[in-house]
Write a structure and sequence with these properties.
mainly beta, globular, seven-stranded parallel beta sheet, Disease resistance protein At4g27190-like leucine-rich repeats domain-containing protein, LRR_dom_sf, single chain
Length: 203
């Protein structure tokens, strides 16, 4: 029996002790109608979106989930990646309408995004990261982008940024990147002792 996910709108995964990847790579193309992902307290989850590193394609494959608007990840203690992304990765994911991302108490997560991911998240408006004790930066700049990183556009539609109780957080972005958020109206950075300049948030 083959399960079709083409009409799936809301995906909720909770208290699952077996799953390691919320959405395997072979199901990504079926999720054109997906709007919401809520995942919580799944102890073995290491990755939200599978990226199928074994693909034989020599060119990049762009996969777009056009209707996804909200992602909430909570208490995923083994989570290491939202999805694995770098400039050698053949499968590139885009979320053109994702507006809200909330992450809480995912203690294995050291960064939320890599620099190659942010171009597919231009509509992000509300970002909250809380209680991830090993989180070092929100955006990790990849070595391949050292020469162009100062011109990178980081979340131009961001309106609310809340970084709470992140004891290892050193900055929003690793490296010197010129970013501005003209629409930002809410900025909260409580209990982040390594952050010395709340306005710059640069490490």
């Amino acid at each position: 029996m083959t399960l079709s996910l083409h009409n799936l709108i809301d995906l909720h995964v909770e208290d699952d002790e077996k799953v390691k990847c919320i959405i395997p790579s072979n199901e990504l193309l079926q999720l054109q109608n997906l709007e919401t992902i809520l995942a919580s307290y799944c102890t073995l989850v290491e990755e939200v979106f599978g990226t199928n590193e074994g693909t034989n394609s020599e060119s990049q494959i762009f996969v777009e989930i056009p209707n996804l608007r909200l992602v909430n990840l909570w208490g995923l203690e083994s989570l290491k990646y939202i999805w694995k992304s770098n400039h050698h990765q053949r499968r590139v994911l885009k979320f053109p309408n994702l507006t809200t991302l909330t992450i809480g108490y995912c203690d294995s997560l050291k960064h939320v995004f890599t620099s190659s991911m942010v171009g597919g998240l231009l509509q992000l408006q509300d970002l909250q990261v809380e209680g991830c004790k090993n989180m070092e930066v929100i955006v990790k700049i990849e070595e391949e982008e050292d020469e162009v990183k100062e011109e990178m556009e980081l979340f131009p539609c961001l309106k609310s940024l809340k970084l709470k109780r992140l004891s290892s957080l050193k900055g929003f972005c690793s490296g010197k990147v010129n970013f501005s958020w003209p629409l930002l109206h809410t900025l909260e950075v409580p209990a982040c002792p390594e952050i010395t300049d709340m306005l710059l948030l640069q490490h």
